[in-house]
Automatic annotation (TrEMBL):
InterPro entries xrefs: PsdUridine_synth_cat_dom_sf, PsdUridine_synth_TruA, PsdUridine_synth_TruA_a/b_dom, PsdUridine_synth_TruA_C, TruA/RsuA/RluB/E/F_N
Assembly and binders: Homodimer.
Similarity-based family: Belongs to the tRNA pseudouridine synthase TruA family.
Ligand binding (substrate): Y127
Record-given protein name: tRNA pseudouridine synthase A
Stretches that traverse the bilayer: none
This protein's UniProt keywords: Isomerase, tRNA processing
Any one Gene Ontology BP term: tRNA pseudouridine synthesis
GO molecular function: RNA binding; tRNA pseudouridine(38-40) synthase activity
Pfam families for the chain: PseudoU_synth_1
Active site location: D66 (nucleophile)
Domain of life: Bacteria
Catalysed conversion reaction: uridine(38/39/40) in tRNA = pseudouridine(38/39/40) in tRNA
């Protein structure tokens, strides 16, 4: 995600609703509307529009996921026409009906004030990257994991991950096309653990650079596989060169897990 900017002052008459959604990103072009294929945003806005007689319902998201990336707890807001009577159940169930058969689901909805913004009010985002670490290819988890046959040492991966915690210049881990003004980000969490055949990489920060999580996962994989020593992560970070880091891990292993707010509109712990 690029740098946060000061939100524009919104008109007071907006009928604004916060939504928490989940989706399987397989086969979609990511969150943002595209002219050459289906996106999550286009599906969401089309379903919302049907609730108000096909009037436009614009959306803002807490984070723009890439093609093939999933979400378990994405947060967005929708601005319905201010003269459209609508309630939380109508939004959740009505949009759920119109979103079929797409793998996009509205989990929760709540009315918010015009000053609340899904993107600019957020104070952190959390992601999980999942690796299936076994010789056999995935069957049930196809399109949800990165399959790595070579055994991975999660202790070595965690040792390397510890060097990335805190504020750093993450140029080596940003996409070449990243448009963020600054490469400096602060990682609050970067945990690597094994759950049977799965290696789970969990991370949390206020915001992330384009491809940052996937590039970190690709580099940690190299260390866990014994192809690079733990100390290599320091050299990669200090190089400030994308070519110094590991490959960009494939999108299907990445899932946006949650978004945090100082005053959580959904009433869950933040």
């Amino acid at each position: 995600m690029s740098d946060a900017q000061a939100p524009v002052q919104e008109p007071s008459g907006l009928n604004r609703w916060a939504l928490r959604i989940e989706y399987d990103g397989t086969g979609y072009l990511g969150w943002q509307k595209q002219s050459d294929g289906p996106s999550i945003q286009s599906l969401i806005e089309a379903a919302a529009s049907k609730l108000v007689r096909n009037r436009p319902v614009p959306s803002i998201t807490a984070g723009r996921t890439d093609a093939g990336v999933h979400a378990a707890g994405m947060v967005i807001h929708l601005d319905f026409p201010d003269d459209a009577p609508i309630d939380a159940r109508q939004i959740r169930d009505g949009m759920g009906y119109h979103l079929k058969p797409h793998r996009v689901v509205v989990l929760e909805t709540v009315k918010v004030g015009p000053e609340w913004n899904a993107r600019f009010s957020a104070t952190w985002r959390s992601y999980r990257y999942t690796i299936l670490n076994r010789p056999a290819r995935p069957g049930l988890m196809e399109n949800r994991v990165w399959h790595i046959k070579r055994p991975l040492d999660v202790d070595l991966m965690q040792q390397a991950a510890n060097h990335l915690l805190g504020p750093h210049d993450f140029t080596s881990f940003r996409a070449v096309a990243c448009q963020a003004r600054s490469p400096v980000r602060t990682l609050d969490v970067l945990n690597v653990q094994r759950d049977g055949e799965l290696v789970l990489i969990d991370t949390k920060a206020r915001s992330f650079l384009h491809h940052q999580v996937r590039n970190m996962a690709g580099t940690l994989m190299m260390i866990g596989a014994g192809l690079w020593p733990v100390e290599k992560i320091i050299a990669v970070l200090e190089a400030r060169d994308r070519c110094a880091a590991g490959q960009t891990a494939p999108p299907e292993g990445l899932c946006l897990m949650d978004v945090g707010y100082p005053d959580n509109p959904f009433g869950r712990g933040s």
